Amino acid sequence: MAEQENLHKKKQRQRKRNFAAQSSGFKHRFVAWLLNRLGLIETRRKAKVAAGDQNWRIIRYLRIARPVEQPYPLLPTSYVSPEVFEKHMVYLVKHCHPLSLDALVTSLEAGQPVPERAVVTVFDEGWRDSFHFAFPILKNLRIPATIFLPTAFIGTMNLFWRDKIIASMLLLEQGGVKFPPLPTIEQVIGESVGGEAAFDLGYSMARIIHLLEYLETASVAERELVLMTLGMGVEGLGGIPTDRLFLSWEEVLTMKNDGIQFGSNGHTHSLLSELTSEGIGNDLDESLRRLQEHGINTVPVFSFPEGRISREARSLLYERGLRYGLAEGSYSRGVKGKSITNILGCTTMFESVSYNVDMFACRLWGVGGFGESY
Q1: CATH number of 57-158+247-345: 3.30.465.10, 3.20.20.370, 3.40.50.1220, 1.10.3720.10?
Q2: Global pTM?
Q3: What CA–CA distance (Å, rounded) separates 307 from 326?
Q4: Number of CB atoms found within 10 A of residue 188's CB
């Protein structure tokens, strides 16, 4: 009885947090609408440029997908629906100067001015939905784009560690399965996974996100232990059901032949800060070897997995001809150095902060409280 009461209280707290998030969303939507109608987005953009900000932006997407069509729920910060993505691209055509990443790098290295309101569109992680949903829109609107590939995952049925945890925990809870307790999970979310309690998707996802946030900063060994334990738990349920979610090399070549550019997102998509110098070098070399093996001429830019810079990797990247690195956040003047990779900042777009053009424009130029990094 006491356990059920505690669960009820936790769900009530989660509902209150959801209501607060909805209220905050309405506020952001109204502010963005007002700024756009009054012409203040452009006014503030110009003021930022006058103060030393760049007059161009790089926007980064992960998945272009509809959550209801996925085998497991998507994290709110991981996707934009095809419908919203098309609105973004139409806005770029009407109000900005779509530019290829290669053209941006060429201008920067030559010291030439970049076109006013230039916007570069990139995709990380090599998801298959970039072929099915994003590619036709980009082709139709003639917008250049670059896709960064984690080569170990291309053409495979594998998943990133976050997706494995989401799918495993939801399978266990939906199936009412309990397995031997794991200290990390019990300490972080306060209870074991599975059991006979009624399944609540919203509550489950809130707990899973909390666990993922913890594991992002945990040791690799602790993360692997959680993955192994969850994997053992779902074996009795037949494992994680999934289709191929990453691009195939055939799809990559089809897009390449139609003008889409490609770059490296690493081989294993490991955070480079978690690897030794030798491990970083091996990961980069294998990634570039796979790309070359499939006839892909890459841009001289490396996209750091999850947008996180590794200082140690910058000289290793430069040695391999990757003169620029793409990282999440604002680097308006660039992070430069001699014989090391220069850093270009990018802004990740996801649906909850950009589902209409007003919000998209605010986030694109970093005005109205829609910061360039969330």
Answers
A1: 3.20.20.370
A2: 0.88
A3: 7
A4: 18
